[in-house]
Design brief:
Elements lengths: L1 H39 L1 E3 H9 L5 H13 L3 E3 L4
Parallel strand pairs: 1-2
Length: 81
């Protein structure tokens, strides 16, 4: 019985590590997007959506990202302008 629990504990530990990696990867992608916006002063909607579409974010998380854009004076525009 103990052996099954050990395997289960190892699997749960791996799952937690995988979730942390995904979270860190998402944070890194968002930070890279923000840095790009800070350097250019503007992001295209395509740049934003290409980044955010790859991430599993809820509406509150997306709203916080847009709030950061606004606080940092990062405009969003169509790619044509």
């Amino acid at each position: 019985m103990e052996k099954k629990n050990d395997v289960k504990d190892l699997k749960e530990e791996k799952d937690v590590k995988d979730e942390k990696k995904e979270h860190n990867s998402a944070d890194a992608k968002i930070e890279a997007l923000i840095e790009m916006g800070k350097s250019k002063g503007v992001l295209t909607y395509k740049e934003v959506m290409d980044t955010l579409d790859d991430l599993e974010l809820d509406s509150e998380q997306i709203e916080r990202i847009y709030d950061r854009f606004e606080a940092l004076n990062i405009d969003r525009r169509d790619g044509n302008t």
